Amino acid sequence: MFNFFYFNFVQTLVKILATYNEDNKYHFFADPEFVDGLTHRFQRVKRADRNIEDVYDGTLYKKEFTPGGFLSEPYNISVKLNTDGVAIFHSSQFGVWPLFLLINELPPSVR
Question: Would you kindly state where each structural domain of the chain is located, as residue ranges?
Fold first, then answer.
């Protein structure tokens, strides 16, 4: 028998980007280093026009990056979500599925 876990991804992402700590509200968009990192997509220089060097070179990203597209706004972000499940023990019916969320607009060295 399988059990499924559901969650509202957009609502959860908003909570991650605007998390609270005990002292004060920490907001990623209030962090100058984070905000500066978001400008990478507007400043990067391609090495070879025909190569796919990063997510920015993909067809879907280019479509959303054009003027008027969702990603043409400096504070809008896109994410990659990776996950892979593993059984806790070989004979266990339970597994762990960690989620790894990556903000595409940050420089590769920061991602």
Answer: 9-103
Q: Is 8 a residue whose pLDDT tops 50?
A: yes
CA distance 70 to 2: 37
> Tokens 């991650």 sit at which residue?
16
Quickly count: other Cβ atoms within 10 Å of residue 40's Cβ: 18
Amino acid 7 reads: F
For position 16, what pLDDT does the model report? 66
pLDDT of residue 57: 93
Cα–Cα distances (Å) from 96 to 29, 69, 88, 91, 108, in that order, read 31, 36, 7, 14, 27
